[in-house]
């Protein structure tokens, strides 16, 4: 289990597959860990280099993140240590926000980009904004469980949803809440036109965490984007792992 020391944290990561070509870098979302990408790692490792990490404060990494930019800095530090110049970030939800930050700050290093169930600005109706604000007053485990249960599309096995909700609730409270605030503060919608790299926007039709309408609003700003909509909710790497891998592979050509 390789680890990297960065300022204020120790990051756990995996680096597998062939060493030639441009690697895929998988970045998980809020309260998750690097194992969200198990299917993609198994799918791509036989013929590509694949890298994934537990973000600061998640999984087997320690530390407390404060901003999306700080998390992006951790990813960049890991890639610098691994002597990776160009790469393809594949980010889910909060991980997609990190990927967009990397693309804006280091455009010359991004070969292509894949955003899975992610957006460039958090937008709430007045009613939902009040509901989300009120939800932070709930007991911590109830708050996390409620958010994770809403992340899955209709018909997903309830026991699996409960299992992932329990796993998410093991993320330290401070990490959960600081990342929650960081996502709400994230806003690069007016800058996505600067991202010239080919980008795949992969989203679930039944996503109520980050609705597909918000992703489509973002897509209008991208100069070179491909949009794919899957019959699933927000947790595409768990709900439709084979479809995600297939879409990424097709996009890479």
TrEMBL record:
This is Alpha/beta hydrolase. It comes from Streptomyces lonegramiae. Keywords: Hydrolase. Coiled coil: none annotated. The keyword Nucleus does not apply. Gene3D superfamilies: alpha/beta hydrolase. Residues 23-241 form the AB hydrolase-1 domain. GO terms for molecular function: hydrolase activity. InterPro entries: AB_hydrolase_1, AB_hydrolase_fold, AB_hydrolase_sf.
